[in-house]
Every structure is written in C-alpha cells, then in structure tokens.
Design brief:
By secondary structure, this protein is an alpha/beta fold. It contains 19 helices and eight strands. Strand 1, helix 5 and strand 2 form a beta-alpha-beta unit. The structure holds Double cubane cluster. Double cubane cluster binds next to helix 7, helix 9 and helix 18.
Length: about 425
C-alpha cells in the first residue's frame, strides 16, 4: 500500500517514515487481535478491507471528493451533527485517535496528566501521521470536558481551520437553547464553507442517511443478544469505530449484509464463544482506533462483550432523529432533541447515563459491567464511583478499570479481569 499512496500522503504533508512505522504497528496489532479470532462471520471481510485501506483508499476517496468541490469535516465528538455536514454535501470523519504518538513533543505542549485521547490527537498532529486531519477542510472542536476545551486553545494555532462548537453542560431549557443556537451557527458555517445552501430537502437527506446508519448498528446490537454470541465484542467495536470513517451508505449496507449472515448463524446456533460464556457490558470513555487493549484482554480471557455504553457504541448511536417535520426549523429542532439526549459525563448531573447502563445490562443479558475510565478523565472517572456503587447494590458485579493507551499494565489488567470473570461465573 505504501508505494501506491505515497504521493498522496506526501501531498498531505505526512511524515512518511513515522507514518510507515504507525501503519506497521497498526497492521501487526490488527493481525494479532482481530484476524486471529476463530470463526468470524464472513461479512467481517468487508471491515477487514476497510481497516487495511483506512489510510489508503478511503483517503483517496476523500481527496476525490475534495477535487469535486466537496468539503471534508473532521470532528472529535458525537455531538457534532453529521446530518448538517451531509446536507452541505460534505463528508464527515472522526478524528479521535487511540494510540500514543510523538509523546515527547505532546508533553511540551500539554501537561503530562492530560487524558490519552487528547494527547493522542495532538500526537497525530505533531507527528504528522493522520491523513484525515490533514485532509480536513474544517476541524470541529467542542466545549465538552475541561481537557478538550482548553486543549483546543492550543490546537488552534497548529491547524488552519479549527471551528469550536459550544455545548451545554446542564440539561435545562437554557442548555437546550445553547445546543439549538450552536446547531444553527454550525449550519451557517457549513454553508459558508461549502457554498451550498442547506434547504429542507438537503437536510432531510442528511438525516435519513445518518438514521439509516444508526438503524443498521441498532440491528447489530439486538443480534448480539443471542447466546452463543454470534459475533465478538471486538468485531462489534470495530464496526462502531469504522462508523466514523466509512461512506455512510456503503457502511449501512455492509452492516445489514453482516446482520443477515448473523441471523443465519443464530438460527444454526453457530457462535464465536461457547454457549453460556460470561457476558460483559463495557461502559465509559470512548475507544478510538486502534485502542483495542481492554476488549482484547476481556475476550481473550474467555468472556464476551455484549454491548458498549460508550460514544463509540450505543451512547453515540442511540435514538434516531425524528423525521415528521418538513421544515428546516422543525428538522433542526429534531436534531436538537436527539443530540440533547446523549448522556455524556460532561453533563451535570447526568443520571440518564446510569439508567442507560442498567437498561443495556438487562437488554443484553450482561452478567457484569466493566467501567473503562481513561486516566485523567475526570468526568468518567468521577462518575464511575456512583456507577459501581449503584450496580453493586443491585447485585450487578462491576469492575472499575482506569488505564491509558500504553501496554505496560496489560499483565496487571489481565489478572484483575480474569478474577472478575471468575467472580461472575
Ligand atoms: S459526547 S464522551 S465524544 S465529549 S476521555 S477527552 S471526556 S478527559 S471524549 Fe467525549 Fe463527546 Fe462526551 Fe462522547 Fe475529556 Fe474524558 Fe478525555 Fe473524553
């Protein structure tokens, strides 16, 4: 792949040597963690292909779209409405990264005790290894946690095109008004950037495309309910990660095709884990590519992950946008309704998230919950304590895991997770 895309990467300003090293690590990790799994559905071949071309063919597609005058918008948060980007004929891509890179350089800019998700975003910029970031015509930051909102002040001078969206911290009428006015402002900004006037017809198409994508992953989530599990949690997480990169229509049809196959596997009782394998619900911080450490430890210890209460998972995809309105005002309001309901820990208070965890636990028949907190992520680490307490009071075994992107704690995590699995058995 390297030679085929070298000129494109050079044109984007990537550091080819560092980028090559990153791709090698990614390919090796993918081989060891994903391709080594037994009895995967054949529908995963498509997603294997997407990963193998994630810095190749997909970037080529973005560059082709740019040549046709379309704009590429990168975002770090599921509050950024892809529907509005699509309505302006743009392409929306996720920019969160799940690996440490250029850490020494990053720590000259950011305190060491910044969460790995933020440091990684800076590392991919400073190390010049992210073609999505470099291809983006607009990078959308958002005022969510303190770490993110303060770090965008430092990211701004490093990129030409940062746009910061303000977001509410409280689920009040005032909070809703903040989201409403920010979505109108974002619509105007997208119109300016693209030169496309977003009318009701365009916005409806954007809403339908993203709703269809969400419906596809909802179908997959429901199918994971079966015992024996017809698909691993690792593969499901991968699909949720690819959700942020792939062409929406192609992604949607590939997920449905996979689901058709999974239905056949369920009928044949053909699982990827033995029947009765301990079932785990993961909850907490988002896991961006290639952050596969914790799910890999869990599933290689004999338990299966049956759901993710996470932004790269159900927190990000729950609820469709209501499609009853024909007017642009009504559609923006429907977007506000849908996104305002995301139960991110940046909200205070945030009781809805605990309700979601409880509902997912019973819907997917989870035997226990593992709460994943990134070190130095105050919102999720602080919430993890009442989450654990409440679930344990309900006799739901719960394990709190705080970690980062390094592999240093793998042995220790494995010991804790194996003991937890023994407990829920
Ligand atoms: S809607 S979860 S994607 S803000 S891990 S950077 S919270 S210190 S990512 Fe998020 Fe939007 Fe919320 Fe979802 Fe801060 Fe925590 Fe780091 Fe985090």
């Amino acid at each position: 792949m390297s030679q085929q895309y070298e000129s494109m990467w050079r044109e984007l300003g990537l550091d080819l040597t560092a980028h090559d090293a990153l791709l090698k690590v990614l390919a090796q990790g993918y081989h060891d963690i994903f391709l080594s799994q037994a009895n995967r559905p054949t529908g995963m071949d498509y997603f294997n292909f997407v990963v193998s071309e994630v810095h190749g063919l997909r970037i080529q597609e973005l560059m082709d779209a740019k040549r046709q005058g379309r704009k590429v918008v990168g975002s770090y948060c599921v509050f950024v409405p892809e529907e509005i980007v699509l309505a302006a004929d743009g392409v929306c891509v996720g920019l969160c990264a799940g690996a440490d890179f250029a850490t020494d350089e990053v720590e000259k800019l950011l305190p060491r005790n910044t969460c790995a998700l933020i440091k990684s975003a800076f590392g991919f910029k400073l190390g010049k290894v992210c073609p999505y970031l470099e291809a983006a015509d607009m990078i959308v930051g958002e005022n969510t946690c303190d770490g993110k909102k303060k770090s965008y002040e430092l990211l701004g001078p490093l990129v030409k095109n940062l746009y910061v969206m303000d977001l509410p911290q409280v689920k009040s009428e005032k909070g809703r008004e903040v989201l409403r006015s920010e979505y109108w402002r974002f619509k105007e900004e997208m119109e300016l950037l693209s030169g496309v006037k977003i009318d009701a017809e365009r916005l409806k198409k954007g809403i339908d495309a993203v709703n269809a994508k969400r419906e596809a992953v909802h179908r997959l989530s429901r199918l994971r309910n079966s015992d024996p599990a017809p698909i691993s949690g690792l593969d499901s997480l991968l699909i949720n990660q690819i959700y942020f990169y792939d062409d929406p229509a192609r992604f949607t049809s590939s997920v449905h095709k996979l689901c058709d196959e999974i239905e056949e596997r369920i009928a044949a009782r053909n699982g990827v884990f033995p029947e009765g394998a301990p079932r785990i619900l993961l909850s907490g911080c988002p896991m961006a590519v290639p952050n596969w450490k914790l799910p890999w430890i869990i599933e290689s210890s004999g338990a299966v992950i049956v759901g993710e209460e996470s932004c790269i998972g159900e927190r990000g995809t729950r609820n469709l946008v209501e499609t009853t309105s024909e007017s642009i005002e009504g559609m923006i309001e429907a977007l506000v309704d849908r996104y305002f309901d995301i139960n991110c820990a940046i909200y205070t208070p945030n009781p809805g998230r605990l309700d979601d965890i409880k509902a997912m636990k019973s819907e997917y028949g989870a035997d226990g919950v593992i709460h994943y907190g990134l070190q130095f992520c105050q919102p999720y680490q602080i919430e993890s304590i009442p989450v654990e307490k409440t679930l344990e009071q309900m006799s739901v075994p719960t394990l709190r895991v705080d970690t980062d992107y390094s592999m240093e704690d793998v042995g220790q995590l494995k010991t804790r997770i194996e003991a937890f699995i023994e407990r829920i058995k």
